[in-house]
Amino acid sequence: MNNNNNNKYILLVDDDKDTVFTFDIYLKSIGYTTVSFVNPVEALNYFNKNVTNCTLIITDYGMPQMSGFDLIKKIREEDQNYRIKIIVISATIKNHNINYNDKFLEFKVDKFLEKPLSLEKLKNEIKMLI
Predict the structure, then answer these.
(1) Which residues, 6 or more positions from 124, have their beta carbon under 8 angstroms from its beta carbon?
(2) Could you tell me if residue 60 is left (phi over 0), alpha (psi between -120 and 50 degrees) or otherwise beta?
(3) Residue 86 forms beta bridges with which residues?
(4) Distance between CA 5 and CA 130 in Å, rounded?
(5) Secondary structure of 18-63 as H, E, C letters
(6) For the segment 80-123, what is each residue's pLDDT rounded down to a tens digit?
(7) What is the DSSP-derived secondary structure letter of residue 6?
(8) Fewer CB within 10 A of the end CB, N or C, for the chain?
(9) Both ends of the chain: CA-CA distance in Å?
(10) How crowded is the C-beta side of 52, counted as CA atoms within 13 Å?
(11) Domain 3-129 in CATH: superfamily?
(12) DSSP for residue 99
């Protein structure tokens, strides 16, 4: 376990329980502190109470109750200095006819990754951001 990652606090949000579970277990195994949610509204409530702890947010795009970009918009209302890095993951964003480059700029998203996503790629992208 890499103890240098212990102060890197990651919030995982994806309505797919298997994805959240897999990412959570893997990231903890390489030393990151993670908190995971399958409900973006619950994740936002948690974030609002723990904003100062968060280093990185990894969120799915297409979720019920609130899209990943709606979640990011609300997070950026609290994180106006863009201290927190954000990765959006999705298998379906291209099906939504959204120019996600414009959305990246609007919401200050640091990285977009398409599913399926290998754990090695996720680890490398996180290392580059934090």
Answers:
(1) none
(2) beta
(3) 57
(4) 9
(5) HHHHHHHHHHHHCCCEEEEECCHHHHHHHHHHCHHHCCEEEEECCC
(6) 899 999 999 988 766 555 566 676 777 889 998 888 899 999 99
(7) T
(8) N
(9) 17
(10) 0
(11) Response regulator (3.40.50.2300)
(12) -
For residue 8, what is the DSSP state? -
Confidence of residue 75 (pLDDT cuts 50, 70, 90): very high
Domain boundaries, the chain: 3-129
Cα–Cα nearest to 36, from 49, 48, 50, 21: 21
pLDDT in tens, 6-65: 677 999 999 999 999 999 999 999 999 999 999 999 999 999 998 888 999 999 988 988
- 58's tokens: 């990894």
Q: Cα torsion at 16, 93, 35, 26 (round to 10°)?
A: 70
Give strand pairing partners of 11: 35, 57
In one-letter notation, the amino acid at residue 11 is: L
Is the Cα torsion angle 87, 12, 76, 116 positive or negative in sign? positive
Return the residue matching tokens 């903890």: 28
Q: Does residue 14 contact residue 38 with C-beta atoms inside 8 Å?
A: yes
